[in-house]
Write a structure and sequence with these properties.
about 20% strand, 14-stranded antiparallel sheet, single chain, alpha+beta
């Protein structure tokens, strides 16, 4: 086998690159052959208990077959044996257990490592197998000294390897390998939830972060980012937003035991799974575990038909708003530039957005309308429901007004060449059970007369378009419990009048949940989700194709193609574990690829027409 002329550092990089590239590729392609996993791999038993994190690739041969299947299906130039190709790329001559699992473990850097290897992680690769003589045959491996062999690649860089259990551990630094071997505890931390532990064994690729170990190191990096951001000369509002994001990241690390991201495939599609093991009683636990399982009518009142997106959430927003408010307060306290007047003013304005916590049972609906004729470029209609209790109603409606008012007052709107206006609508009503419903509108319209040729075409496309999007939130149950709420969102090509929504709410009508594609997509949700979203991505492409054809002077594309099962996002909490899943069905990906192939030629034609017209 012909060897690549790579040094030891590139050997490690190629291992990571292959594993992460495979994950990225699989997240964009749909179902391969059915997933067959070997018995629970023992690679996790080879991970030090105080490791900062790791990436594991389960069942190399099974994974290799999936890649080969996908390459063939999508007509991508493929290799005869992806596993052999991977071995060649990372400099292995054989000797791997094809049914074993491969891992990269990230450790705390030993003293002096950062200076000798700037910008590189302190990592050890675990290869399934113990035949180091075969693995590194062309690297002239040395005679083992205290169990450690050295091998030198053609560029002259030295690597270190040793057998540990049924695996070979390889590092680019002898100090890192010694740090790994000196571990006193092995296996996963005791705080790891059974859900996360099971996923680590069964997902095709899984990445795990031990928050307790990573937090001190990450906090220093986050503080450095915050300081640079404060000194960057950005607008105060941008500094506040960045400061808040950093504070939330710090809270996420401080209030979790572990975080995991996994990718798994079967013959129906691919799933991207996220897991958080949360510290019990923490604000994060209160915010993320406040959701309740969705009721039997999660999309009540939404119009059926060819929707462009659906969302349903059942839970209280108060803990989430409280978490955001805390992030603002803590971020300001840590920020060294917090005494600047403009920063303080921006911070005050940002806190005003969370002045009114949405307490108790309430729901909000909003409608996003594409313009028609000379209407504003964008119109957002927000509708809110609340229980009849006066205090809750006041907080809900005032909170809505505050949030929309902030949109209007945001300087970024003017910077983008837009003008925003806010108005409350007179179409409020009250349901029979005392639930109050009210609405408000924000209009966004362009203020700049000079637009680029491409943007002129985009604006004309929007101005000529019919009302094509509908976004709504409302209660899954009219008789909402005092401590729960349901937020429903829908994006629909056939705009539904608000009066009809009111009638459906009163009648308890939910026609969407009985639609075939929703039922099919629902089979891939997490058990007992508190939040669900359905995303028919291919329908967005079809709508865009019709607009692009019209802009280029072509007739409509004929009958609308049958759209595929929508992608889905679901979130659920169990105990102190929060989980989220994105599932991309096989037929949805096929439809995206098929429709997407038609987009780029039309865009190129539009660009050429715009240049000729300019």
């Amino acid at each position: 086998m012909k060897r690549s002329t790579i040094n030891g550092l590139h050997w490690m990089r190629k291992s990571v690159r292959w594993m992460t590239a495979a994950a990225a590729a699989l997240s964009l392609v749909a179902g391969a052959a059915g997933s067959v996993h070997a018995a629970a791999p023992d690679v996790l038993s080879q991970v030090p208990g105080d490791a900062m994190g790791f990436v594991v690739l389960n069942n190399l041969q099974g994974f290799s077959k999936k890649i080969q299947h996908i390459e063939s299906r999508l007509q991508i130039p493929s290799s005869a044996n992806p596993l052999s190709t991977m071995e060649m790329q990372v400099g292995i001559d054989g000797g791997l257990d094809p049914h074993g699992s491969m891992a990269m473990v990230f450790l705390r850097a030993p003293a002096g490592f950062a200076q000798r290897h700037p910008g590189q992680p302190a990592a050890v690769i675990l290869l399934p197998g113990t035949d180091t003589k075969t693995m590194f045959a062309q690297d002239n491996p040395s005679v083992p000294a205290n169990g450690v062999i050295t091998f030198t690649d053609p560029s002259g860089t030295t690597n270190y390897a040793t057998v540990h259990g049924s695996y070979t551990a390889v590092a680019q630094s002898k100090a890192v390998l010694s740090e790994y071997l000196a571990a006193t505890t092995w296996g996963m931390p005791i705080e790891t939830s059974p859900h996360t532990l099971a996923a680590l064994h069964t997902d095709d690729i899984a990445a795990y972060l031990n928050s307790a170990v990573a937090h001190p190191l990450a906090e220093k990096q986050l503080e450095s980012i915050r300081t640079k951001m404060d000194q960057s000369g950005q607008q105060a509002q941008q500094i506040v937003a960045g400061d808040m994001a950093i504070s939330l990241a710090e809270d996420l690390l401080a209030q979790t035991h572990a975080m995991m991201l996994g990718l798994n495939m079967d013959d129906s599609g691919i799933a991207l799974n996220g897991h958080l093991d949360i510290v019990a009683g923490s604000p994060l636990a209160q915010a993320l575990t406040s959701g309740k399982p969705l009721g039997p009518k999660p999309f009540m009142g939404l119009p059926a038909g060819d929707n462009l997106g659906l969302f349903s959430y059942n839970g209280s927003t108060a803990p989430i708003v409280g978490l955001l408010r805390t992030a603002l307060t803590e971020g300001a306290a840590k920020n060294p530039q917090s005494n600047q007047p403009d920063y303080q003013l921006a911070l005050k304005n940002a806190r005003g957005r969370f002045k009114h916590v949405y307490a108790g049972a309430m729901a909000t609906a909003s409608v996003l309308l594409a313009p028609r004729g000379d209407e504003p470029i964008l119109r957002l209609l927000a509708v809110t429901q609340s229980q009849s209790a006066q205090a809750i109603e006041h907080q809900t409606l005032e909170g809505l007004k505050t949030s929309l008012g902030q949109i209007v007052a945001n300087p970024g709107i003017a910077d983008a060449g837009l003008k925003a206006t806010y108005a409350e609508n007179p179409d409020a009503f009250e349901l029979a059970d005392g639930t109050h419903v009210a609405s408000a509108t924000v209009n966004l319209e362009p203020t700049r007369k000079a637009l680029s040729p491409v943007m002129q075409h985009v604006r004309q496309m929007m101005l000529k378009g019919e009302r094509m999007m509908w976004l709504g939130n409302h209660g899954a149950e009219i008789n909402m419990a005092p401590v729960g709420q349901s937020l429903i969102s829908g994006l629909n090509v056939s705009h539904k009048k608000f009066s009809q929504t009111a009638a459906d709410l009163k009648a308890g009508t939910d026609t969407i949940s009985s639609e075939k594609d929703v039922i099919t997509a629902g089979k891939h949700l997490l058990p007992n989700p508190s939040a669900v979203a359905y995303l028919p991505i291919d329908r967005w492409i079809i709508v865009a194709l019709d607009k692009l054809r019209a802009m280029n002077g072509f007739p409509p594309g004929g009958p609308q193609p049958v759209t595929a099962t929508p992608a889905s996002i679901s979130a659920a909490a169990s105990g102190n574990s929060a989980n989220v899943r994105f599932f991309l069905p096989e037929d949805q990906l096929e439809s995206i690829v098929t429709q997407g192939k038609q987009v780029f030629p039309l865009i190129m034609m539009m660009e050429m027409n715009a240049q000729q017209g300019g």
